[in-house]
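User: I'm preparing a small set of examples for a lab meeting where we compare how different chains pack in three dimensions. I only have the primary sequence for this one, and I'd like the structure in token form so I can line it up with the others. Please keep the answer compact; I'll paste it straight into my notes.
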Amino acid sequence: MKKSLSLLLAAIFLFFLISVSSEAGVRFGLKAGANTAKFIGSDVNLIEEAGTLTSGKYGLVGGIFFAFDLGKVITIQPEFLYTMKGSTIEDPTGTYTEKLYGDYLEIPLLLKLRLPTPIIQPVIFAGPAVGFKLKEKLQLNGEDIPLQEKILKNNDYGAIFGAGLDFGRHLSIDVRYSLGLQKIIEAADDLSQLDVKNGVWSATIGIAF
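Assistant: Understood. Below is the structure token output for the 209-residue chain.
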């Protein structure tokens, strides 16, 4: 119920932004790119007692954004992104490989600062983000494992930091890091208190209209 309500509120907010942008001339755009995600947190070493956390989840990220320019230097940019997160645990002997993946609707609200140079403008940005889990998957040696109960919490939140280049008003590239602040494990009482969070590097290309 909470997940459905959160998605409904996000849809209403999205509709409001589209309406405002069409009337006020705010730029609307699409962006897409690639992720590399890995669990972080002080208790990740407890997971590693059963294996070595060797690599993260390689996936995709994409969605829409709105750019509210406040002069030539400052931009407020809310985004609605589909993003893939997760991590991989591999036994040192090579006996098994376990992968836990989660796909999210992530909504960052970014403050961008731009150096107003001709043609190409360097930018830095930061801001909070909330995420709503859309699905999760557990694999063992490449085979899907049916989940009797959820492992990952329904919601996630964190902070985003990044930098990039704007090519005029219509094309941009950026690299960002999404630092999870929410403990994401909820499978059982003895696991739900583990300090395990999402950490994600992303590279994206954006086109504004």
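A couple of notes for your slides: The CA atoms of residues 74 and 113 lie 5 Å apart. The radius of gyration is 19 Å.

User: Perfect, thanks.
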